[in-house]
Amino acid sequence: DAGVTQSPTHLIKTRGQQVTLRCSPKSGHDTVSWYQQALGQGPQFIFQYYEEEERQRGNFPDRFSGHQFPNYSSELNVNALLLGDSALYLCASSLGYGQGFQPQHFGDGTRLSIL
Amino acid sequence: GENVEQHPSTLSVQEGDSAVIKCTYSDSASNYFPWYKQELGKRPQLIIDIRSNVGEKKDQRIAVTLNKTAKHFSLHITETQPEDSAVYFCAARQKKSSGDKLTFGTGTRLAVRP
Question: What CA–CA distance (Å, rounded) separates A2 from A105?
Fold first, then answer.
């Protein structure tokens, strides 16, 4: 049973560039959430996708955007990168909302470093 | 929005002793409270969770208690072992009509001394 997989594992970019991170949910899951985890902090919610639509969004600027594909996989895009965007980006999958208390399972994350 | 506070930020215990981590939340609409363990360089792993209609849940050496009136919940680890050393995060889930999100605490770094 494949868990949540994310790619790439590490990425180095420079300020002003754009980046795309990818996530494949755990088998059987249809909902994907993205979180940003700065060093020494708890994960911060970016947004959640279900049925290919953004369902809820945290306090992140429009530079952060996403997409969900028909196979439930998802991408996180960040434009005009800033030094403060350096963090671990975590993807979590779950089995839909409105279906009870379904836990979110995390991937290993993508470590993004901005120079 | 929801705000989750977690204490203490660091905790050191002797192997075999108990450890307690406490969290408070602000939004009375939050209805699900998971705890995650994150070892260095690894993914957060769900270790136990509790729903708002339950006051206590136990799984072997780990237990979680919830006080909805006071809006706080706690993680209890008994008979601690060196492999329990990690950062622990509490979280609260807000269930809204168009999605749900987890709001995390700031984490507790637990060190178990052999």
Answer: 12
